[in-house]
Amino acid sequence: MADDLEEPSQSQPILQQAPEPEPSIYVWILQFVSVLIFSSVVIWLCLTPKSPICFITHAYVPALDGGNSTSHRPHNTSILLNFEFLNPNKRMGIYYKDICITLYCSDAVIGSNSLPDFYQGYKKTTAYEVPVSADLQFCKGITNGTARLKVCLGSVVRYKIFRSKTKHHRLFNEANLRIGSNGRMSGEKNIKLMHHKSKLTKN
């Protein structure tokens, strides 16, 4: 009779689901550091000033203007240059100082002039007309002809970021001009002075 009794079934262990592992503190630290680095890069890019952009919009050499009898004379040594200064920065002003413009012809200096110091707000454009008295021998040599000039512009700038100012940045820019027989700039209308050399100087 005992044989007829069914043996009780063996108990099966109840498998408990393992709790999901909580994110490690190292993962949170890594995420925090990544966000911090990304934010620092964005802030650095926003606060890194861009150099001012300068164009020559017009140039006139009266000694080359054959159609103007009053200016087509060897003793007229004036050269007129029109410049535009552009501040490409957002929320950053620029202080310009010691702006010197030098003209070259065949690697020889033929004249120079300077501009007064000025401040330029962000996203602003400032125009200047600069007369340069050229070397008399140069003007005699180009009468009834054309000329190729190199314009060099050197300046010291400081950037205004919020209420503070950066250190001085010394900038050098240059461009080549072709002056036609009418005494005016030929080719491109607006010639950009290209960045040649820049270095940071202490106060």
TrEMBL record:
GO BP annotation list: defense response to other organism
Lipid bilayer topology: Single-pass membrane protein
Keywords assigned: Membrane, Transmembrane, Transmembrane helix
Domain Late embryogenesis abundant protein LEA-2 subgroup: 87-138
GO CC terms of this entry: plasma membrane; plasmodesma
Xref: InterPro entries: LEA_2 (IPR004864), NDR1-like (IPR044839)
Membrane spanning residue stretches: 25-47
Broad class of the protein's primary localization: membrane
Transmembrane helix listed as a keyword: yes
Subcellular location(s) of the protein: Membrane
PANTHER family hit by this protein: HARPIN INDUCING PROTEIN 1-LIKE 9 (PTHR31415:SF125), OS05G0367900 PROTEIN (PTHR31415)
The protein's name in its UniProt record: Late embryogenesis abundant protein LEA-2 subgroup domain-containing protein
